[in-house]
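User: Teach me something about this protein's shape.
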Amino acid sequence: MNVDTELDVWRQQWQSGPTIPLDLRRKVERQSRILKLNLIAEILVTIMIGGAVAGWAFRSRDAGIILLAVGTWIYIAIAWTFGLIVNRGSWSPSAQDISAFIDLSVRRCRASLAAVWFAGGMFLFQLAFVLGWVHHYSPAHLTPISKWLFFGSIPIDIVWVCTAVFFGFLLWYQRIKRAELRCLRDLQEQTPRSTFDDTETSTFGGAE
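Assistant: First, the predicted structure itself:
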């Protein structure tokens, strides 16, 4: 079921009665489970990657490894800060009614769009840092970096292919979420509600 069809079904269901559409409830609950799983994954990545590189730096005492550890933990700290801010107020609906479920869906959609920009920026930051570190602290430093970066080896070729795939996915995901947000905002405007806090929808207003 595509986004337009799904939202049309929700609209028909709430117009025919006061109950929350079952599909909408299930979708919100599924998103909540995904948020929790993502949080667990982020904790595990922080422990495994952050802990591993910190331990490596502590054991080696090498300036290059210490720099890598510091850069990694800066990246982790920025990612955690963004995640906590962008997901604030998005863990559960404020009430058990259709307007609260739709408002939550809108907030989550805006958060996803903000995450697209963040993921793209952080990927480029990490890519530049890691490639610069590898070039400086490996035998590759004997090769001019411009030559090394552009198809200098199979690993570098794989990096650029993965980069193209990643940004292609981001563009596809952004297009899907923008379409979903437009439909949700339209549905939100048509949904009967007793109260609605407009300040909540302005948090990620720039992501539309």
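Now, about its shape. The chain is about 80% helix and 0% strand. Residues 7 and 183 are 7 Å apart (CA to CA). If you'd like, I can walk through any region in more detail.
User: That's plenty for now, thanks!
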